Amino acid sequence: MVKVANVKKKASTLLALTLASTMILSACGNNNDNKGSESTGGEGASGKPVTLKVEVFDRGNSPSGSTITKNYLTTYAQDNFGTPNNINLEYVPVPRSEEIQKLNVLMASGSDVPDIVFTYDSPTFYRYAQQGGLTELGELLDQYGPNLKKFLGEDTIAYGQYDGKQYALPAKRAHLGKYSSFIRQDWLDKLNLPVPQTTDELYSTLKAFKEKDPGQTGGKVIPLGMALASAQYEPLIWSFIQPTTEEQRYTLTQQLGSNDYPTLLPGFKDALQFMNKLYNEGLMSTDFSLDEDKKKLGEDAAKGLVGFFSEDDMNPFYADGLYATLQKNIPDAKLSSVDVYSNSEGKHPKPEYAPVGLYLMIPKSSKNAVEAIKYLDWMASGDNLLNMQNGVEGENYTLQDGVPVSKADATEEAKNRIYNFGDMAIISNGKQLGETEKNVEAYVFGMPEQFRDETRKALTISRSDTIKPVQFDRPIESQSKYGTALRDKFHEMIVKTTMVKPDQFESTFEAMLKDYMAGGGQAILDERTKAYEAMK
Questions:
Q1: Are 50 and 89 in contact (CB under 8 A)?
Q2: Other CB atoms closer than 10 Å to residue 12's CB: what's the count?
Q3: Radius of gyration of the chain, Cα coordinates, nearest whole angstrom
Q4: What is the mean pLDDT of residues 326-341?
Q5: Which string of b and e fits 221-250 if b means at least 16 CB within 10 Å?
Q6: Is 203 helix (H, G, I), strand (E, B) or coil?
Q7: What's the mean pLDDT in 180-202?
Q8: How confident is the prediction for the chain on average, in pLDDT?
Q9: Which of 476, 463, 166, 424 is nearest to 314 (CA)?
Q10: Coil, helix or strand for 127?
Q11: pLDDT reading at 199 higher than 80
């Protein structure tokens, strides 16, 4: 059963966003003469103290003795950046669960908005830029942010551009990999089977799992674990997508939310037909359509019923996670990270994340744009980011081959120093150690020792043969307008085409695709086609 979008809720949300947009545009209109970089002279350096206001997410998780606005890291930033530059840092808390709503209110206020604000939501960034609510950052970055510019790199910086101008500085993502796949190695060993290397070999392996039940599940075996979630179906579907031209990638891809969907790309129908084949032959989870949160898949895999599944790359290996629970239930169970789904070129394609985290923005009304860029540049300088993300060497961590490894015996006081490092070190999404391999090792060393080798392998798989997200230099309005409803229709298409009898697949697919296109898919296709032509 697929969830149907709540029309009243969507109408209410649209009205709220419309009102917020009106207020923001009004606030921006009152500051048309304030050109950001021209309105600030870096007063802190001239002797007059400056108060620099910086947004910070409030997750309600501050340990005793700390608050989200007064803690080890806020003091570190004040002592090492603020005081030497005659700047008072003031942190403005925004509840993480209400970030867009609260930010809309702050932006509409004009005078109360912090000097540095941020969001994970690209449509929100585009809306602010489109309405003239943001400071243009190109010259400021060149003049006051050389370390920041080098740290972020051109690929990441490009995501902060609107209509050819720099209006945001996207945080740099440390690891771009998304998905890996996992197989019960002990089942392969029992059946004397090799690790499958292609989709065809996987199909044969799944059939062997069903027929021979190497886990002795008493007929409950689930050869392929599936859920109605991206981590499960995307690796399978994208492996069927045929090689495409640049024009096809830009125009036929549909971005719904933060993910690219291959609904109109050649090969998508073949992927759904393969899922239909697996389902009708009893080779995949029968109740996957009800499992949008992956909870049932996790339970089945931990009970030892699942032979193969795909997942977010590190998910199975966390302490007390899926693999640990599986081994408690079945001590001899062995889970191996594998890269199996293959395309027509013999590669193992899978989507990767955009190289961005937060969109860091300076409102047009800010009089401290220079100080704001200097603050972000300081964070990218020397060991400041290392210290903010890891704490004190010898107390919070030790270095192993240049990689900070958290001390298992760190005191509670030491741990509390960096409880909020992800929300304070805002120029980075994940720990940055200067190169991808070290970044990956930082994740690896964060896992239980017995799972580190498989974690490393899974992280390698997740960033191999990856498909980069499609980036336009302007917002695609129809994606924001229809995205939520179309994501529901996309899921409905997967469910219905997978679960029908094989002789009903063709008609079901055609009917579902027609409904999808009428529900906004055609509008997105038309707008992306125009945007591609304009961008060329």
A1: no
A2: 11
A3: 25
A4: 98
A5: bbbbbbbbbbbbbbbbbbbbbeebeeebbb
A6: helix
A7: 98
A8: 91
A9: 463
A10: helix
A11: yes
